[in-house]
Design brief:
Low-confidence stretches: none
Strand content: 15-25%
CATH topology of the largest domain: D-Maltodextrin-Binding Protein, domain 2
Structural class: alpha/beta
Number of domains: 3
Shape: elongated
Oligomer: single chain
Helix content: 40-55%
CATH architecture of the largest domain: 3-Layer(aba) Sandwich
Number of helices: 11
Radius of gyration: 27 Å
Number of strands: 11
């Protein structure tokens, strides 16, 4: 079957009539009837029987539709990818970050970048790591920003900076004059945990398990800013990344370095085989430097 025949068959089968199919495809009813007749002639069997003025799919049509639907879905994805590629070449930078970056870092980076490049238009998404990878593979975004992203086929990974975990508490009363904390200091205290679906949640879970510490979990979340907000409200203490810990979102908390430290990378992601536009390359450099500056400012005495 040719692609046009697949499209017409899909429309007739889905809508139940030639008239409805013609309306869906924005063509005339005779045109639909002609294409369908040619398809049946090539296949050597009927696809529909007309019973009391209605089109009834034959058993062969039911079997064929299962496969046609898969092909049709693939064609739809192809059209979407083609549309995404067109948008990518139209003077736009499409960027996605995990929530830890999407709430403050990306808006700040975009705002300061546009001070020097006012003609650039951005499309911004906040996605989890797996969704960022899917968006890159579908050409929906040009750049992704995430913590500790593992190497994946078809995706290029660039390390921007190394960051650390910090302990977040609502105030200093819980730990007195301590300037840093070990996981032993957290034992038996109300604790907001990070779900192990993401790379930082898994790293933290492994760290606590290796130290033989089983926190007194009062809440779970996979969004670091929510963990911070819970700590700020007095629900418990938590461990979060430096970016989240020092952001303005989520309320005020007291931070402590965790000893021994847990390090992880801040990574920028892009399609391996698709070069970035000149504007996107400039933005990646700008974004990387901004993140390094933010980390340096938070670590300075």
């Amino acid at each position: 079957m040719r692609l046009r025949q697949i499209e017409v068959f899909h429309a007739v089968y889905s809508s139940g009539s030639m008239t409805n199919a013609a309306a869906l495809l924005n063509v005339s009813q005779p045109s639909v009837s002609k294409v369908l007749a040619h398809a049946e002639q090539q296949l050597g069997y009927r696809l529909f029987d007309r019973v009391k003025g209605k089109l009834i799919p034959t058993p062969e049509a039911h079997q064929l539709f299962k496969h046609v639907r898969e092909v049709y879905d693939d064609v739809d994805r192809l059209r979407q990818v083609a549309s995404n590629l067109k948008a990518a070449s139209a003077g736009r930078i499409r960027v996605a970050g995990t929530p830890a970056f999407g709430l403050e870092v990306l808006p700040l980076a975009i705002s300061t970048f546009r001070d020097e490049h006012p003609d650039v238009i951005f499309e911004v998404e906040t996605l989890h790591l797996d969704e960022i990878r899917d968006a890159l593979n579908e050409s929906r975004i040009d750049i992704g920003l995430a913590f500790d992203a593992a190497q994946q086929p078809g995706i290029r990974r660039k390390k921007i900076a190394r960051a650390n975990f910090l302990v977040l508490a609502p105030d200093r009363r819980a730990f007195g004059n301590k300037s840093s904390l070990s996981v032993g200091d957290l034992r038996d205290r109300p604790f907001i945990g990070l779900n192990s679906r993401g790379p930082l949640g898994r790293a933290l879970s492994d760290y606590l398990e290796a130290a033989g510490v089983q926190p007194n979990i009062v809440a779970w979340t996979e969004t670091y800013h929510i963990a911070k907000a819970l700590a700020a409200s007095g629900a418990g203490i938590t461990i979060a990344d430096e970016i989240t810990a020092h952001s303005l979102t989520g309320g005020k908390v007291v931070t402590y370095p965790l000893k021994p430290a847990i390090h992880f990378d801040i990574t920028m992601l892009q399609q391996a085989e698709t070069p970035l536009s000149l504007a996107a390359k400039r933005f990646t450099r700008h974004l990387g430097q901004l993140i390094k500056n933010l980390l340096a400012d938070t670590r300075s005495p």
